[in-house]
């Protein structure tokens, strides 16, 4: 491993840890942008320029903007929660993190879990048939999940009743809650 590869690995790990440990969601999204940019640099260094540019345009651009949009919507409607809604999911999260770590470390142990298809350096001519052929369902599912997440975020911040239907006293209370 060259010093540049080690530096890229450390920066990827550092920004990844920042993404999941920062308490401010905006700062975590900025760390995610940094992670995506470092990964794009690795793609370019591996002679996969197309993948590097797509990483910047799609992920560091569009996907993170979508995340920030959802974060801003959720912060706009954030109320006081009297309990921690993530308590039940912590064991599952730890189990998933362990699984991901084992898959990532399998490369160090010599276990080959990678696909054997030659992507010719990430050229569009090699990626197109793969994405729109073998992986079409996965591509559509990811697009649907992103759309569904955005729709759910917008639905979560919508008021239950329009302000016009409220009495003057209820309007005053509603405005105080929003502040």
TrEMBL record:
Record field: catalytic activity: a quinone + NADH + 5 H(+)(in) = a quinol + NAD(+) + 4 H(+)(out)
Subcellular location: Cell membrane
Family of the protein in this entry: Belongs to the complex I subunit 6 family.
Chief localisation class: membrane
Organism: Thermus scotoductus
Enzyme Commission number, as recorded: 7.1.1.-
Example of a GO MF term: quinone binding
Parts of the chain that traverse the membrane: 6-22, 29-46, 52-75, 95-115, 135-157
Role: NDH-1 shuttles electrons from NADH, via FMN and iron-sulfur (Fe-S) centers, to quinones in the respiratory chain. Couples the redox reaction to proton translocation (for every two electrons transferred, four hydrogen ions are translocated across the cytoplasmic membrane), and thus conserves the redox energy in a proton gradient.
UniProt protein name: NADH-quinone oxidoreductase subunit J
Lipid bilayer topology: Multi-pass membrane protein
InterPro entries: NADH_UbQ/plastoQ_OxRdtase_su6, Nuo/plastoQ_OxRdtase_6_NuoJ
Recorded GO CC terms: plasma membrane
Keywords, in A-Z order: Cell membrane, Membrane, NAD, Quinone, Transmembrane, Transmembrane helix
